Amino acid sequence: MASLKSSASTSPRIEFPTHGLLPRADTQAADFVRKHPKYDGRGTVVAILDTGIDPAAKGLQVTSDGKRKVVDFIDCTGSGDVLLRPPQKCSDEKPLELTGPSGRTLRLNPEWTNPTGEWRVGSKWFYDIAPAEVKARVRRERESLFNKNAQLLADSVCSQKHAAKAATSDANKCSELDAQADVLATMAAAYADQGPLLDCVVFHDGEQWRAAVDIDETGDLTAAKAMGAYKHTSDVALLSKRHLLYYTLNFYNNGEILSIVTSVGGHSTHVAGIVAANHPDEPQNNGVAPGAQLLSLMIGDHRVGSLETGVGLTRAAIAIIENGADLANMSYGEPSATPNLGQWVQLVRQEVIRRHRCIFVSSAGNEGPALSTVGAPGGCTDDIIGVGAYVGYEQMKADHAMTEVVKDTVFTWCSRGPSPNGARGVDIYAPGSAIASYPAYIRERLHLANGTSMSSPNLCGCLALLVSAWKQEYSSLTEKISPFRIKNAIMATAKDISDELGAGLMQTDDAWQFLKKHAKRSFEDVSYSVNIMETNGMNGIYLRNAQDSSVARHFQVRVGPIFPTNPETKLENDPSGANGEERSQSMFDFEQRVVLTCSASWVRAPEALYVGSSGNIFNAVVDATNLEPGRLHVATIDGYDSLNVDRGPIFSVPVTVTKPHVVDSSACIRFEGLRFNPTDVLRRFVSVPSGATRATITVTSRNSSVQTSAPAVFYLHCLQLSPQDRFTTYELKKRAQVGHKSYVAGGSSAEQKEKFVMNVIGNVTLEVCVAQFWNQLGTHEVDVLVEFSGIVPAAAAISGGRPTSVVVDGNRGVVRADFAALVRPEYQVTPSATLDTLRTALRPVEATIAPMELERDTHPLTGAAIYRLVLDYKLSTKAENANVLLNMPGIEGMIYENWADDFTLAIFDANKRRLSSQTSYTKPITLAKKGDYLVRVQIRHRSAQDLKSLENQPLVVETKLSSPVSLQIKKSLASVFTSSMAGTPTWSSIPVGGRVPLFFKTELSNLPGDAAPGDALIGKIKLSSATADLALEYVVPAKVVKKPEDQGAASAAKPEKKEEKETSQADKDVKQMEEALRKVRIEWVKKTKDSSVREKLVTDLVSASVTDSDKAAVLSAQLESIDVASKNSLPWSEQAKFTEAAAKRAVEVADRIVDLTYPTALTSRLYETQQAKTATAEEKELKQNADKAKEQLVAALTTKCRALAYIATQASFSCASSESSVELVDMAEATADEDASSDTDSAPKAVKDYEKAVAQLAQWVSGGQADEPKHLFATVPLHISKHHYGQALQPVLKWLSKAPLLNANAAERKSMTDLRDQLLAKLHWTVWTDHFHALSAAEYPASYESL
After folding, report:
1. Band (980; pLDDT cuts 50, 70, 90)
2. Measured between alpha carbons, how far is 417 from 290 in angstroms, rounded to an integer?
3. In angstroms, rounded to a whole number, what is the distance separating the alpha carbons of residues 842 and 907?
4. DSSP run (H or E) holding 586
5. 3-state SS string over 780-795?
6. Which of 44-58, 313-327, 1021-1035, 1151-1165 comes out lowest in average pLDDT?
7. Residues with Cβ < 8 Å from 17, sequence gap 6 or more?
8. pLDDT on residue 1206
9. Comparing C-alpha atoms, which of 355, 719, 341, 251 is closest to residue 539?
């Protein structure tokens, strides 16, 4: 056999490049620790604001000096909270037993110490606190096991069915088995696993709170360990043994709240491993600062898919302060519209960073490579260090397995600055990939991940080394090093990596040398704010649009020092005033004599600037008129301490100019021959023409003599910046493989085109960024063509602003809107208007403002509790599977820039079950059942007064229409009204500058039934295939008033009658009074409690009645008083209040009603079957009387069935009463042996009478009416009497599946649910009875879940 080994093969390299697994060399961190082994982070605490660290992760157990690695695990979101019941004591009979919320009996451990004897119990759904990976595995396992058992049951029933059909001719038995098979199939199709429900027991052992969790769902806690709070006990336990999910505990509000702390994802563990993992046996896997301790702060909320929440962020800030963390890393963030704004941002800047001196590091984002794609907080918040992602040689070899390395670079996807306010955005770079610790529940010790989420903790680890060194060498100078001193050091010593905006790579040892050199220079503890005056919050000069660079621009720049502080300077902490005096003196003594330099000739500034503690202002001139258009131009105005110039700039004013190309009349621009090598990023800037709404970008790649490389992945990233809009508002980001169609070996020619489309706004610069992905090899050449088009409303054309939405007021009949083509001729313009969403507004039915708990929610800025406003809204849906989006403009849609502390929204059904939790970014939810819902909104803020203004805040509800509605558009006013001019308006072309009017006919024939006047239908106007759609809003008009009947026609249709004597007004009044009194007396038939009084009243009313209809009305009231719970109870239940005498009386009364109403009710049947028309008033009156008679007859037959079912039950045997409305009794004994005795056995006769009554009722009710609870509770007992539980279950399940979730039918739904469970128990289908028992806890919670 020939050898498979190539003769040219070589031996593999012996050493794996382990130094690149978690890169530390490029930042000098590895060399620094080698030089200073004890400066490895020991003595520092790093807070990790993330998804929560896994307590069992490798490398995160102990520090290099033997301390516990994680000082505490805190769920800041509250999603792991268990709201406990009031304290209770065990009974004397069962001193160690409690009943849990699940219904299980909890047997307690006799070894537990509980001096008070008081216990608190609560429960938590496992899926509410399990990370997605564990939840998915547990659900798969549970569903597989359940489906296996359910299928065994279904197979058994199927076998019985086939055997019965083969062995017997008993049709009833076969029908019942068919029904059982159908029921099993129906339940299996609707099965949904709710997951384990974990009971919890909490008590105080005399020293601290402790708790035990019933993770096995057995109730047996006799051998369970009661865990304390991790911070005090280090207690960690498994929540899922099979899946290695560990948890810790915390207790709040004096034991009223138990917090079960898990992890919402593996991200935090990986981040923590990069910062500070310590592997004593595998030091090559260590994090950057293995000696540092960690504080796990979970800000990702289980309820909203790990998204951060305002509550989580604020509590994390509080925890940082309370635990004295030296550093904080936050690898989280979102796009931001307004840098440096938002209550949380201000809280972190003022309290966490400046007052409590925590060095705060955050990821810049992964939204590049276009400019200004940094997110909040990392790239948009002063004082927070924003970190970009760098990739170097050792990462390429170890992490990315590259066959051929490229030059060290910034990752292509890394977000870039400047921030929208002109600030740097990315302060510094660090390695953005690592193979580091991962959670045990993911079953992976180490894991590779890329992102600024990895570069941020890498930098944070480097800073922990510096803080550790400072604490050990310079603790006598200051208790905690200033974050400003650290940031000054790393910015001054960063390594140049040719970043476009000047950010460098972290150099740990160089930064340490800088710190040592300037250790005694107090001014290093000062930072500087830069504000460009009269520019609405700009912190740098950012000229992006054409008008910005068309002339030389003059700016006033204000520079001022920012002094760090500490808690001791607060008035309440400084009774003597000494600390305040020291700070005031340092501000008084401060002065800097600054020399200014400009890095580019097109920027001018004065040579010198005196800066005192209040700052100073200087003038700067930026003349971009001669700069090359279409390119990025960057400069800085640097300020140096005139006495220490070698130190480097003490502040810098970033100057960024993106001078755009101006598009000519062709409305397009070409960039040809763009040549790329690995890691290259090319940017071009274009001023979008006024009136443009769409850009079409075509990327063409060619194979030529210079391009013989293999295919490569390219990014096309285009965006515009609009004031106070996120960069994602006008953005196109696509990933394409260039050369996969054009690559030909040997360089033969070929061509490949990729076309992309995006919406744009006029007069705003568009960046067109093309990048060859960093690890793609070879040289490639592409051409880029950008074409603009657009038709806009005339108002927008005049103003030159963004296209506004078109509003059509439905009350106006006809609405005219003019449109203009300003960019180029537009062809084949065929407008259409489609409305697909109903927008309504709800006002709160209840609003409450109250302070939060002090323990977790005391705001550091005020020292008082944060307040919360809770708003309740009633939402009703009229259709199943309603797609609903809820929003509160001005409050939701923001996290970091939000003026409020938090915005949370939850939707509950009529059973109080939470269907959805949402936070700042609301999203559509499908409400499967029509019904009544409660929407609860919580807004938190430190000021109760500010919240009070929101007590009547409307909630906007946007509901997708089941089918879109079209609004008619006409070309002229006349065509709106003239049928001969019908048709869709079309223009073959509209010239540049041409305007066309459109006329909207506002009357809608298919207006949604639940649309009320003042509501809005929203959709879009499509003008042509080449232009962007425009937003359309249609205001729902006043309702159409139905015309009254034509009295003349009605009179003409009536047959002539003989003239009757005119009735006097007095006689009319007497007649009306007598009729009103009669109705009152009939109502008292239902209300009176005394049976003899009722019988006399009925007798009198019947005697006084003239017509059969009047008599039937009296008897129907009597029948209703006998059977008071017909809608939601079985006849023999205590709730029904039947007695044998009452049941027999009900049968008698029902028979009388049937006799009185039957002839007239037949007329109603005639109208139904023949669909007879009622043209005259007399015919309508006749039909109304017939329908009323039928209604009375059906009600009588229904009660008769219930009464006969009760009589049959009593005749069979004595029934014990039950509080349940659906307690089942076995009626089958009544029919067991009908011929066994010749006596007049009343039981079989009663059952036969009942069966006949059911058959009679079936003649009058069918379809949906037969499925109503009042009829089901009358007819289902017949199936029960025959042991036909499957046939009884069929209509019950059908009703439950279709019944709307209304507050009004809550009792009926509960009764039908109980009936289902009783019937399943009779069938001994344990697999399903257990399932529905567990499901009931989820479907019918005792109270609304807290937000």
Report:
1. low
2. 31
3. 14
4. helix 578-589
5. EEEEEEEEEECCEEHH
6. 1151-1165
7. 394, 397, 398
8. 84
9. 341
State the burial class of residue 1296 (Cβ atoms within 10 Å of its Cβ: 0-12, 13-18, 19+): middle
* Residue 1001 φ then ψ, to 5°: -85, 115
Distances in whole angstroms, Cα of residue 1030 to Cα of each of 238, 688, 802, 813, 825: 55, 18, 11, 21, 18
Identify the sign of the CA torsion 1009, 1012, 1013, 1016: negative
**pLDDT tens digits, one per residue of 1248-1277:** 888 898 888 888 887 777 778 888 888 888
Task: Give the CA distances from residue 978 to residues 408, 969, 1139, in Å, rounded to whole numbers and listed in that order.
Answer: 71, 13, 72
From residue 921, how far is each of 326, 336, 422 by CA, in Å? 32, 13, 26
Beta carbons within 10 angstroms of residue 208's beta carbon: 12
Q: For residues 483 and 559, what is the distance between their CA atoms, to the nearest angstrom?
A: 19
Tokens representing residue 527 in the block: 């930072």
Residue 928 predicted with pLDDT over 80: yes
Instruction: Look at residue 1057 in the predicted model and tell me its pLDDT.
Output: 47
pLDDT level of residue 289 (50, 70, 90 thresholds): very high
- pTM confidence score: 0.91
- Please name the amino acid found at residue 722: S
With tokens 């005697």, the residue in question is 1103
Interior angle at CA 472, CA 469 and CA 475, nearest 5: 110
If one compares 3 and 376, the residue with the highest pLDDT of the two is 376
Total Cβ atoms within 10 A of residue 812: 12
- Chain mean position to CA 782: 41
Taking the chain, what is the end-to-end CA distance rounded to the nearest angstrom? 71
Residue 782 to residue 300: CA distance in whole angstroms: 42
- The answer to whether the CB of 689 falls within 8 A of the CB of 822 is yes
Beta bridge partners of 932: 876
CB atoms within 10 A of CB 531: 19
Tell me the β-bridge partners of 933. 875
Half-sphere exposure of 89 (CA within 13 A, CB side): 7
* Rounded Cα distance, 247 and 131, in Å: 12
Convert 318-355 to b/e letters by CB count within 10 Å (16 or more is b): bbbbebebbbbbbbbbbbbbbbbbbbbbebbbebbbbb
pLDDT higher than 80, residue 801: no
Helix (H) or strand (E) holding 672: strand 668-676
Residue 1069's pLDDT is what? 77
pLDDT tens per residue, range 67-123: 999 999 999 999 999 989 999 999 988 999 999 999 999 999 999 999 999 999 999
Higher pLDDT, 14 or 621: 621
What ranges in 1176-1241 are assigned the alpha helix state H? 1177-1212
Are β-strands 327-330 and 45-50 bridged in parallel, bridged antiparallel, or unpaired? parallel
**Cα(546)–Cα(630) distance, rounded to whole angstroms?**
10
Q: Which residues form the catalytic set?
A: 50, 267, 453
Cβ neighbourhood burial of 847 (10 Å; 0-12, 13-18, 19+): middle
Token pair listed for 945: 């007064």
Peptide bond into 431 cis (omega under 30): no
